[in-house]
Amino acid sequence: MNGRYALLITAATGNLGTSVCAASVIADGNGVITGGVEELTAPSSYDLLDAVTDGTYLIDPSGHGTMLLHTHLMETLKFSFVLTSPTHALIFEYDGTPASGTMDLQQPAAGGSFTAAQISGKYSFLTDGIDHSGALKNMSIAGTFAADGMGVVTSGTLDINNGGTFTTTSFTGTLSPPDSNGRGNLIMNTPVISDSRTFVYYIISPKVLRLLEGDNISFVGGSAYAQGSAGSTVAALSGKFVYQHHGWSTPGRTVAAGQFTADGMGNVTTGISDSNSGGLPTTVTKGTTVTGTYMISGSPSGTLNMTDAAGTSTFNLYLVDPALNILDPGNSSGGGGALLVHTDASIIGPGVLIP
């Protein structure tokens, strides 16, 4: 590891409740973390822009590593990670908060600085967490936006599933210039001022941003991905896909995964799936056929109605750049797919669809 790396880790449950942590750290190539910034949002803890003062890391020949960070606010954070490529790792925190996520090498613009011009074009985004209300309702926030490369969000759609109640609204906004950590603010201004939101972003590349809501309205985190040349008709979703979706349902935590074929004409065929639903005891369902239909018309987003091992669900889907590997953004192989968000009350959570 040598350079600046962005972390995004989330915990569905834990010592702090549902939490989101984002960070940018500088690795010197010799096992020392020389600086950076860390921030955390959770019902019982909320701090932004906590400077990373020092740290260390160690990587063995297999690509497994550990990292220790100290911050200005006297936090000590301990992580374990596995490099899946020179630019990407899967990471989890093991010091008491059961959080996991990703770590990616950040790519500044030519000249070595991060710039507003790096965020340009159309993006799909997806975040997940809880609402900051008395009930702490489970929440997913997703949508699309267009940025002009000069700090202006010219248009966007904000979709929210808050405890099973789904709303959608348009927005415009601004992007503050990124600092030396690749960090800035994405401000979404909706027609109803009280619905406007501010997200912290970290630049991974011009095609990928990590997001954390930074206004104390809700505690959600996720990513934004460039749409690139993603299509705007049902033909854009054609071929074999694997998928995963998860969230909260009446029994508790639900996770489902599977594979299916999309025929390019709006039909899901030849699929199989498995699911695990929370409760006492958990309910495991295996080998369930996947069926469904989807619609994409006029933009790289649409809807998906699907029945699988977790039951029948409705989703909004948001296509991503066919040349972008959303599981490992620095990897030039693979690419495409879609982000998913549940739009009904059966399961409240996100998902992903990968070719």
Pick out its properties.
8-stranded antiparallel beta barrel, 355 residues, Lipocalin, 24 strands, 3 domains, mainly beta, single chain
How does the SSE layout of this entry go?
Elements: E1 2-11, E2 19-28, E3 32-42, E4 45-59, E5 64-71, E6 76-85, E7 88-93, E8 100-105, E9 120-131, E10 138-148, E11 152-162, E12 165-175, E13 183-189, E14 197-205, E15 208-213, E16 218-226, E17 238-249, E18 252-263, E19 267-277, E20 283-296, E21 301-308, E22 311-319, E23 338-342, E24 350-354
Antiparallel strand pairs: 1-2, 1-8, 2-3, 3-4, 4-5, 5-6, 6-7, 7-8, 9-10, 9-16, 10-11, 11-12, 12-13, 13-14, 14-15, 15-16, 17-18, 17-24, 18-19, 19-20, 20-21, 21-22, 22-23, 23-24
Could you explain the architecture of this structure?
This protein is mostly beta strands and 355 residues long. The chain folds into 3 domains: 2-105, Beta Barrel (Lipocalin), CATH 2.40.128; 116-226, Lipocalin (Beta Barrel); 234-354, Lipocalin (Beta Barrel). Helix content is 0%, strand content 64%. The protein is built from no helices and 24 strands. It has strands at 2-11, 19-28, 32-42, 45-59, 64-71, 76-85, 88-93, 100-105, 120-131, 138-148, 152-162, 165-175, 183-189, 197-205, 208-213, 218-226, 238-249, 252-263, 267-277, 283-296, 301-308, 311-319, 338-342, 350-354. It has an 8-stranded antiparallel beta barrel. An 8-stranded antiparallel β-barrel has the order 9-10-11-12-13-14-15-16. Strands 17-18-19-20-21-22-23-24 form an 8-stranded antiparallel β-barrel. A hairpin with a 3-residue loop joins strand 18 (252-263) and strand 19 (267-277).
